[in-house]
Amino acid sequence: MKYTIKGMQIEELEKLIVTNGFSKFRASQIYNWLYKNCEDKIELMENLSTDLKVFLKDNSILSTLELSKKVEFENTTKFLFKTKNNQFIETVSMIDDDKHTICLSSQVGCSVDCDFCATGKMGFIKNLSAGEILDQLIYIKRNISQPITNIVFMGMGEPFLNYKNVIKSADIMNDALGLNFGYNRITISTAGIVPKINQFIEDQKKYNLAISLNASNDKIRNEIMPINKKWPISELLKISKKFNKSKKNKITFEYVLIDSVNDSESDAIQLCELLKNSHCKLNIIPFNYIGNQYKRPSEDKINNFIDIVHKNHQGFRILVRWSKGIDINAGCGQLSTKEI
Ligand code: SAH
Ligand code: SF4
């Protein structure tokens, strides 16, 4: 059996190499090569001893993903990766002037089953390992020269249903001796798995957090996000208060605007009422088509909704996010590996 060392933290590397008769300090050299230098060829890891290189060559796996396909449109690139057990995931790179955002997948498919999301329609297939999450980022870092400025867990899957591996990978991204991305450059988006949000607060993780709200009342949210029956809007507001108390960067609520579902004037007013004085950010995302019954509202309807929110909001901030890459099905919620 080979050890998958991509995704290992320093302590795990130390244990592995000490058990196999090498000096402990070698672990930090390997860690450095894997994450700081993003090197995946053992022969290029100059400062390792020859016998350690031979050991790693015979017994370890450094790269967990293989590129299967790449589609580009303007400044957005969608990557289709194959895992070692022949499953597929998608990752998106979006460049906007000097901002370069990478949208990472955390699972193959998703069990949350939101009715408007292509990933949800795949069902749950598997959790990605920390190595598979890191390799999406490392591949893009090695292959696109523009420096990465932001990392968002908004690709395929529900990050908080793969909490351990997501946090482990984020910690390696954040580690100054690892990939060295500041914690405010990393955002985790969740459909609202309340116990895990609570754990995230208790674990004192500093990454940005976004919750996909997508409705201004439980009746509509129950219809489009079945998970709302377990953790309704009141629970989300309660936990977000706790989060905001503990963090400088306040929580973001995402609201996917869907035609004739959640885009009426009364929805806009109810939404302002809900978020009043919450000090959160509200991110409005016009729906991206996934081939089912849902549609994006007309531009007039979108603008009208935004106007009402702008006029009525109190104590929270608003941002409108037009997804990049919808021409190549790389927009929010369009990731699925049925076709690319
Ligand atoms: N599972 C996590 C993260 C992945 S989804 C979550 O749900 O938050 C990332 C974002 O895409 C979420 O805010 C989700 O509501 C949004 N989304 C899903 N389907 C969409 C679609 N068809 N159009 C626009 N946004 C969508
Ligand atoms: Fe899963 Fe997020 Fe899609 Fe819902 S929106 S099905 S939680 S990936």
Give a short synopsis of this structure:
This protein has 340 residues and is of the alpha/beta class.
Keywords, please?
alpha/beta, 10-stranded mixed β-sheet, 11 helices, binds S-adenosyl-L-homocysteine, single chain, two-stranded parallel ribbon, 340 residues, elongated
Describe this structure in words.
- The protein is α/β, with parallel strands linked by helices and 340 residues long.
- The protein is 35% helix and 21% strand.
- The protein has 11 helices and 14 strands.
- It has helices spanning 10-19, 25-36, 50-59, 118-122, 130-143, 163-174, 194-202, 218-224, 233-246, 265-275, 299-312; strands spanning 3-4, 60-61, 65-73, 76-83, 88-96, 99-103, 107-109, 124-127, 150-153, 186-190, 208-212, 252-257, 281-286, 317-320.
- The strands form 3 sheets. It has a 10-stranded mixed beta sheet, with helices on one face. Strands 1-2 form a two-stranded parallel ribbon. The chain has a two-stranded antiparallel sheet with strand order 7-8.
- Strand 13 (281-286), helix 11 and strand 14 (317-320) form a beta-alpha-beta unit.
- The chain starts with a strand and ends in a 20-residue tail after the last strand.
- The model has no long low-confidence stretch (mean pLDDT 95).
- The chain binds S-adenosyl-L-homocysteine and iron/sulfur cluster.
- The site of iron/sulfur cluster (SF4) has 12 residues, from helix 4.
